Amino acid sequence: MGFAKKVWALLVGIKDALVLALLLLFFAGLYGALAGRPGPAGVRQGALLLRLNGPIVEEPSEMDAIASLQGGLQGEALRPEIRERDVVRALREAVGDSRIKAVVVDVSGFSGGGLVHLQEIGAGMDAVRAAHKPVLLYGTVLEDGGVLLAAHASEAWLDPLGGAYLPGPGGYNLYFGKLLERLKISAHIFRVGTYKDYVEPYFRNDQSEAARAARTALYGAVWGELKADIHRARPKADIDLVTRDPVGWLRASGGDGAKAALAAGLVDHIGTRVEFGQHVAALAGADDATSRPGAFAHTNLATFLGDHAESSAGRAIGVVTVAGEIVDGKAGPGTAGGDRIARLIDDSAGANLAALVVRVDSPGGSVTGAEAIRAAIVRARDRGLPVVVSMANVAASGGYWVATPGARIFAEPGTITGSIGIFAVVPSFEKLLAQYGVTGDGVRTTPLSGQPDVFTGLTPEMEGMLQAEIENGYGRFVGLVADSRHKTPAQVDAIAQGRVWDGATARTIGLVDGFGGLDTALVAAAQAAHLPAGGWHAQYLASPTHAGIAQFFAAFRPGDDDDNSADNPASDGAARDWVGLVAQRQRKGLAAMVAASARMVAAGGAQAYCLECATAGGARAPTLWRSGRRSGVLAGLLANPYLALLSGAL
Length: 650
Hints:
Structural class: alpha/beta
Strand content: 15-25%
Mean pLDDT: 83
Number of helices: 23
């Protein structure tokens, strides 16, 4: 027995030693990761390297440490996102920084962004070029967004195995009408708005003429704005050659995508990463710290921004960001949690702000979440703060709802906005169950007892109340817009009906006041607060984050780093050729099909969401399966988890 105790004690000691060793290794790695991050004093004479590995977004999602551990350090939780205003600020600072001899934009791992964001980055690239500093871009497979950025570069380089294409906005949606009929699933539709076609896939087999007309106008405007921007920046680009007969254009170059892009004037040079790096080194200086081929002296985005602190002179103008899907609760950043953003606005009461700018990049979402944000903005306005709204890529449905308290609303011609309307979808399975001999029976004390019942169907009274609830929500939405835009409800109803508008048309019909980005909105807010030029600065309202943990896991992100050598690949999942790009799109299409099916039962409350706006505007895909807070006269009834009240989609 004594021997056994000694053996057991030895095993326990070994276990404790191993645990201690693992803990020491973990904290040593944590310290090394945090200590090894580049500091603000690390700006080198050479090039500013902007490695755009991932999507351009208005507000990056906070690193989810738990999800990172569950999904692995190379999982989706570590997918990098690049804040648009960080890139724009870096480009502006590069103009006057004598240490920066050139700007390098690497889009090998670029996964897109909204038109407005890309145009603002393009304008920043133009400013660098105007300061007589070259802007050099390198990519592999370029689509619309990559081609637009390439148009603003002094020199655009393409990998010999790559290509550049202009597929343009648009595509097909899936329609489940026949499938649901065959499966005997009833989709109860409640809506207000001729153009609210989000529900069409659940009872039609094709697109309605109203929806087709609206989307044709929207996509035509966005596509025209994209082509015009490319043509202004790169007049030699032959867009018609690329889009009129893409097969003939590609075959004329022997099926070589890179040569076809060069022939169409979309890029200037074809070369390997090593050849590109050698060219940059000749302009900006070689990297003496390494012997890797293609290396050049450079400073990355994080280090450069750390060396250029944002101004804090004068009074503060608060900027609150409403980015991503609007949901109930405290979600975000990257998702617009209504309670979180409302608290940010309310907490700013003690910050001595001179004005408030609401920056919106959202296709909408939860009605109650949007209302929580709107109400907080109204409270700020009632405190005497001038409120100005700045729309980015998309500010539709719930995204427009939160914009209604603004004294002035600014958008860009390529902004997607409007979508003033509400609808609901409630699936029920009584026909399907009856086919297998399952029926329902019982006793009701009122017509609403047990309703809504997705297994035995909805009573006429239940359907009538749901339609009344949707109509009431639409009336409230129209009323808010009418008060904001100084119109009658009838005038708003004529331009509402769930229709989505491009920014140029929205200005014509009075949904926005003028063109301009965030800078324009800030200047307007400063003028409304009677602040002199140079007597103010932007203060971005943000929730405190777990910076240490987030920074540790961010160290493993395959994104913006110091390695610019030829053997540094693009981020995981990036397409390397045209076939890979097609496969990538195919995967996204399958995921969209699953998401479209799930949305019938996913929402936790009334929604003001514009599904197509999320795609066309470059916003994130919606987050499914969120529990939410319910409101309205049907609060108790809406607790049924199978009930989906969705609104605001095209």
